[in-house]
Amino acid sequence: MKVVPKEKGIYSFSKDHEPVESVDLGEPILLEAEDAVGGQIKSEETPIESINWSRVNKATGPIYVKGVEKGDTLVVDILDIELAPQGVILVVPGAGALGDAEFKPKARIVKIEKGLAIFKDVQIPLRPMIGTIGVAPEEGEIPTATPYKHGGNLDCIEVTRGARLYLPVSVDGALFAAGDFHAVQEDGELCVSSVEIEGKALFKFDVIKGKKPNWPIVEGPAHYSILVSDEDLDKAVKIAAEEAVKAIMKAKNWSFEDAYMLSSLQVKIAVNQVVDPKKGVRAMIPKTIVSLDDLLYES
């Protein structure tokens, strides 16, 4: 099994980055990742002002996936996630949903013990997830801290152990990268961070040829979630709703009106995060309503 160390990483998604490793379809690969603040907070006494912000949100990679071409869908199976024994959560004035409030910069070390994250006197069951995961865009360079159609800093709690992610491929080989692991996060990620933690994730890849989704899709046991992001949260919700209704129309061969009505009964809109450069939402559609093919489009 190939292993990519945490030192081999990027701070943006771009077709111009040289791959650090290549894999065949179906070949497992382990990516090690540093925490989102680059391991710079060693204790609660570390001054937040000392953080080098150019070293945050590193993603390990990129990985060249053989047999994957522009116009395909990269299928990403998250086989396992292993976490370090402690992580960190921090608040920074000016950041987060309440960034305009008056408060001091502060960090808390969070111990990981027996399947729990220990925050002061509160014990929270672990829910390991991958915050940043994506592929290279067709043109330009997108910071790893920003989510968009290529993936990126999705901060979606469904991107977890056992999930399957479908990413639209814009360059040959996809140039996949992942990082920013969280021990636990809730929808919204209100304070701008969660339990940021070093870890390892085991992946394998497959491909769907000649078709791709308009936005990243994550598959859970009972539903598909379309992951949409925009600077404006209302606009992100509108786009997600449009994508969901369009998929129902395709699946059922129904009119817009009927699909729109069913969306009120069966499609759940949830907020992934409200703190990144682009806000993130997801439209969750039951598998009893749509199939994967209803979410993919000819390239």
Structure description:
- The protein is mainly beta.
- The protein has two domains: 2-38 and 55-84 and 129-211, Jelly Rolls (Sandwich), CATH 2.60.120; 217-298, Acetamidase/Formamidase-like domains (Endonuclease I-creI, Roll).
- The chain contains two helices and 24 strands.
- The protein has helices spanning 233-252, 256-266, and strands at residues 2-4, 9-10, 12-14, 21-23, 29-33, 59-65, 73-83, 86-91, 106-113, 116-119, 122-125, 129-134, 141-143, 147-148, 151-153, 164-168, 176-182, 199-208, 211-212, 217-219, 223-230, 268-273, 279-286, 297-298.
- It has a nine-stranded mixed β-sheet with strand order 1-5-18-7-16-20-21-23-22.
- A hairpin with a 5-residue loop joins strand 22 (268-273) and strand 23.
- The longest helix is centred in the C-terminal third of the chain and has 20 residues, at 233-252.
- The two termini are 32 Å apart.
